[in-house]
Hints:
Blueprint: H1 3-41, H2 73-83, H3 87-102, E1 118-119, E2 133-136, E3 139-148, E4 151-157, E5 160-168, E6 172-179, E7 184-190, E8 195-199, E9 210-214, E10 217-221, E11 236-240
Parallel strand pairs: 1-2, 8-9
Antiparallel strand pairs: 2-3, 3-4, 5-6, 6-7, 9-10, 10-11
Amino acid sequence: MKLSDFSKQLVKILRDDFGKGLVKALEPLLQRVAQLEEAVKAFPKQGDQGPAGEKGEAGLPGAPGKDGQTPSPEQLKDLLAEYLKTPMGIAVVQAAAAEEVKKIPAPENGKDALDIDLLPGIDVDKSVSRGTYATHEGGLWRAHQRTHGMKGWECIVDGVASIDVEVKGEREFVVKLTRSSGQVTERAFTVPTMIYRGTHEEGKSYLPGDTVTSSGSLWHCEKETTTRPGTGAEDWKLVAKRGADGARGKDGAPGERGLPGKDFTDPSKMRMHS
Length: 274
């Protein structure tokens, strides 16, 4: 036998013996895999979603709220300061400022911008020559002559120097706008702040924001009115409904024994009052 034929025969024998041994070793594992595949097929499939459940019962009424307190002017001022930081408050101020800006007269044609000497501010201790421009108090100023202090300056673009807010009364606020030229414009507005007025009084006039107690419930006034809450008018809005009555309490302990009674069986002991 040739050496090459012997090698081929040896490889065949080794291959057959090794393959049979490997199959025999893996046989338990293959059987277990087959069992798992059959078990997976037996798993139940997910069904369709069931119908929605019924709506639950309403919860118990909440406890009555505490009486509100009338805020002080300082509290209202802090409240307004917080309100002006909100998007709505900012929009109110911007709208008012925009209306005022519309009233500013259009500037006249001036010199070429390259010829304008624009100062970042007015120094009253310095004198500048005629034709000098400067920004001051939010506006644009021009020197129409050599200046001494503020003399010789004129405001040609009247901007906004400051905006102040003053609290007046319980709900009234005054916005004071000071222009660059010193002109002051005031605008007043009211905010329907909630103020508790106690128990409702028949015939009394109430304003938007007032809250009262009527028949055990708390009501909020929507517009000026003299009507009574709960009568069907849209002047009032229910804030907190009266809670249900509590359960009857336990009987109290017996009282002390009374004094001995008088004997009225003997007519001679009876006194007649004239």
